[in-house]
Amino acid sequence: MTRLVVVGNGMAGSRLVNEVRARDKDMKVTVFGAEDWQPYNRVLLSNVVAGTMLPDQVRLLDPSWYADHGVTAMPGVAVTAIDREAQAVVTADGGREPYDVLVLATGSEAVVPPVPGAERAVTFRTLDDCQTILEAAATARGAVVVGGGLLGIEAARGLAGRGLPVTLLHLAGHLMERQLDAEAGLLLQETLTELGVRIRTGVVVEEIEEHGVRLAGGETVDADLVVLACGVRPVTALARDAGLEVARGIVVDAEMRTDDPSIFAIGECAEHEGMVYGLVAPAWEQAAVVADLVTGADKTARYRGSRLVTRLKAKSVELAAMGETHVDEDSDRATEVVRFSHRARGTYRKLVIRDGRLVGAILLGETAAVGTLTQLFDRGAPVPGDRAGLLFPGLSGTPVADSPVRMPDAAKVCQCNNVTKGQIRACWESGARDVEAVAAATRATTGCGGCRDAVEGIVGWLCEQEGVSA
Fold first, then answer.
1. CA distance 268 to 43
2. Number of H helices and number of E strands within the chain?
3. Distance CA 195, CA 191 (A)
4. What tens digit of pLDDT does each residue of 55-76 get?
5. Long-range contacts of 451-456, Cβ-Cβ distance < 8 Å, separation of 24 or more
6. Which of 255, 319, 340, 350 is the most exposed place for a label (fewest CB within 10 A)?
7. Cα separation, 237 vs 248, whole angstroms
8. What per-residue confidence (pLDDT) applies to 270?
9. Of 336, 278, 343, nearest to 309 (Cα)?
């Protein structure tokens, strides 16, 4: 019997174990997790900070799942070494667990900038971090969040939602500079300011003091709580110490296999064709490939890379960014850029089109175009000639992909789990009458949560059409 050992019980590792059990009921599976918690959805941690969700509500697997499915789970047990010659992993308490197949799903760790006083701050990465932040927020008079990327914005919005005065400090000239152009970054800043977050861009943090943050130039921003959201880096030390090839992440091929044929790597610790993906959907796609290969369910399974769609999930903020969003329109004559901006309403829409196909987009503010554009980007399908109809669905009779009535069954509703409208319909016809039942059957809504409204709309529409109570 094949012995599978998984190191890491986060979003990638727990998904792999689940996928393996769905294909093979008998394989011996052992999973180690450095955290004491059951696996949870990191994407939803900002909701825990905001107080809209409890820790138990972001759990990915019920605690009884492991025993029910014959999986040995070792929470709070860190793996410290890999003995490749003996094919065994070594734990911090000196234990050894032999393997035939080893999967590394060690994820990422928070980047702590090398500034004096950094130990006074709290990172925003784990459920333990959330609890520390919440304890401090209960008595704090003000907070500072350092970092204006996705995590920093979510942390700041969550704390502001608790009524705490929050200042967000960002080194770059505008927020989320990797995903957004300057105009979109400015509109996002204005939206967040209206929601109670004070934002300072283009500032350098020189020291974290006992009661605030000192900036270059000597100015001090007062705060009792300082949260660091300065990015993440892949956790690769275990692989590097074992002699595996490591660049930015653990280098893998299309099978997600390292240079040791018995060892795979998936999720945020893995580097495939020079890319390290920091989003949920790629990690879960990789988990499915490895599950197919190690169980023999599909020996031809290969990972081909992912088309990234970044969604900001913060209360009262709607944002999606995908593909190439930074284009020099003066020098790149082969690329068409279609743009609409309405600052008063906090709305910004930008399409980047090349060779008749959507290669990038930014959508800020409520818009029904998200579903249609995400599908066009994900599939690489030709873009309709009516550009205005893409930005403003319904203006020229353009079908609205977010409308359950007009959405084709092949339309992908849940990007994270690759769930289509047709699958949701089939699930409904089998008796699932609410979002929770659909989620249990298809996993839709269990990733970033951005599709929940769409799933609710489809379920509600189906119930209405058939005269069934939801």
1. 13
2. 13, 27
3. 7
4. 888 988 888 999 999 999 999 9
5. 451/413, 451/414, 451/415, 451/416, 451/419, 454/371, 454/402, 454/413, 455/413, 455/414, 455/424
6. 340
7. 11
8. 98
9. 278
